[in-house]
Specification:
The protein has one domain: Cytidine Deaminase, domain 2 (3-Layer(aba) Sandwich), CATH 3.40.140. Helix content is 29%, strand content 22%. The protein has 4 helices and 5 strands, in the order H-E-E-H-E-H-E-E-H. Strands 2-1-3-4-5 form a 5-stranded mixed beta sheet. A hairpin with a 4-residue loop joins strand 1 and strand 2. The longest helix has 14 residues. The structure holds zinc ion (ZN). The site of zinc ion has 6 residues, from helix 3.
């Protein structure tokens, strides 16, 4: 990983500690470097009505859109997660988040970093995470 990637992962790791996850105990942090260069953070927010909870990626995307409006685009994303004992766990973005990331990605080459098995940090493109992404006929697929 480059220095930029490592700083983005460090931001995701720090944000992970802010998680509101009383039900699963799984803390997740996400850090997005926007195409503008700004960094946006998000954490998971659980709710007793489980489907109402937010993934960390969703929270970070919301922060970016709130700040930059419709022009917000993702250039890079890092995710970090721990279990209820604070131990790092494997955590790639869920299916719903993959679709959200793809739709707001600055291109299908956007790098996604996440912890995988045995503490390995995986880096893949959003195109690799979500091949054959859904898009409306009127929308332009990411370049
Ligand atoms: Zn998700």
């Amino acid at each position: 990983m480059t220095d930029t990637n490592e700083s983005l992962m460090a931001a995701a790791r720090a944000c992970c500690r802010q998680s509101h996850s009383p039900y699963s105990g799984i803390r997740v942090g996400a850090a997005i470097r926007a195409a503008s260069g700004a960094v946006y953070l998000g954490t998971n927010v659980e709710n007793a009505a489980y489907p109402l909870g937010n993934c960390a990626e969703v929270s970070a995307i919301a922060a970016g859109v709130q700040s930059e409006g419709a022009g917000f685009r993702i250039a890079e994303l890092a995710v970090w997660a721990t279990d209820r004992n604070g131990v790092a766990i494997a955590a790639s973005p869920c299916g719903g988040c993959r679709q959200r990331i793809m739709e707001l990605a600055s291109g299908s080459f956007v790098a996604i970093h996440f912890p995988w098995q045995a503490g390995e940090i995986r880096t893949v493109t959003i195109g690799e995470l979500l091949p054959f992404a859904f898009s409306l006929p009127s929308s332009q697929p990411p370049r």
